[in-house]
Design brief:
single chain; 278 residues; alpha/beta; Rossmann fold; 4-stranded parallel beta sheet; 43% helix
Length: 278
């Protein structure tokens, strides 16, 4: 299939959290066409084995390739940490951008005291992917990186408890150690976490928060510009972005959650069976 400027940008995630990444893409690339795939039937990926994550990642990639995308965005931090090489191998000549490298690079540019915090799922934190990327980007430099798994953040967001007192207490419980370490930069290493920005900022007001979706979208913009694949790059605003939504299951609260992530109501998504492409 011919890939050109009109080809869509493909974004996949283990569920709906990747919509926070899609929102940033719409912000920086408003005129593009998008295909979003959420594996809502098998979410979460954060407690799956590496082999299973790789299998799922290959299926997600094949689906987006079948839609003729010009670039693939792994909005899932777990896939980005454990299986990005599989995504790239499967994608072939189609460029792939994950969450780890853009956010790690942004954290290094942001930090003033060299103390960087990373929060994410158990799988992402256990992989040490952000630590390894920071070490690779700044080999020999003296940065202190502190990581913390925050598994309850996802259900807080999924249940819409964004301003509940319980959410505030859990944020304080998870992040008090990072605050005591005086980290001045904190990577939100899960696509759900940007919805908790207000609580995290209240607890750590002097800390710069790194949104993985924001920095991956800027990276994609630059890459597509280099390849002359941007669609209407001078267009700054459109009434409604052109997005084709696909999910592997339709959760009962899907539309409410999608609006929370994107800020607008979406059309009914297509139900998709990924095993057809495995």
């Amino acid at each position: 299939m011919l890939i050109d400027k009109n080809s869509p940008i493909g974004v996949f995630d283990s569920g709906i959290g990747g919509l926070s990444v899609l929102r940033q893409f719409i912000r920086f690339l408003p005129s593009e066409n998008y295909v979003y795939l959420g594996d809502t039937a098998r979410v979460p990926y954060g407690n799956k084995s590496g082999h299973t994550v790789e299998t799922y990642a290959k299926e997600l990639t094949k689906f987006l390739l079948s839609k003729g995308v010009k670039i693939i965005i792994s909005a899932c931090n777990t896939v980005s940490a454990l299986a990005l090489d599989i995504v790239k191998q499967t994608a072939g000549d189609i460029p792939v951008i994950g969450m780890i490298e853009p956010a790690a690079s942004a954290a290094l540019r942001s930090t003033r005291n060299g103390k960087i915090g990373i929060i994410g799922t158990r799988a992402t934190i256990g992989s040490n992917a952000y630590l390894h990327e920071i070490q690779k980007l700044e080999s020999g430099s003296n940065y202190e990186v502190y990581s913390k798994a925050c598994p309850l953040f996802v259900p807080i967001v999924e249940e819409g408890l964004l301003r509940h007192e319980a959410a505030k207490l859990i944020v304080e419980e998870y992040l008090h150690e990072l605050r005591s370490k005086e980290v001045d930069t904190l990577v939100l290493g899960c696509t759900h976490y940007p919805l908790l920005t207000h609580l995290i900022s209240d607890f750590m007001p002097d800390t710069t928060l790194i949104d993985t979706g924001e920095h991956s979208s800027v990276t994609a913009l630059r890459l597509l510009a280099e390849k002359n694949l941007l669609l209407n790059p001078d267009l700054k605003f459109i009434d409604k972005p052109k997005i084709q939504f696909h999910v592997t299951d339709l959760p009962t609260n899907f539309f409410e959650q999608a609006k929370n992530f994107l800020g607008f109501e979406i059309d009914k998504p297509h139900l998709t069976d990924l095993t057809d492409l495995s």
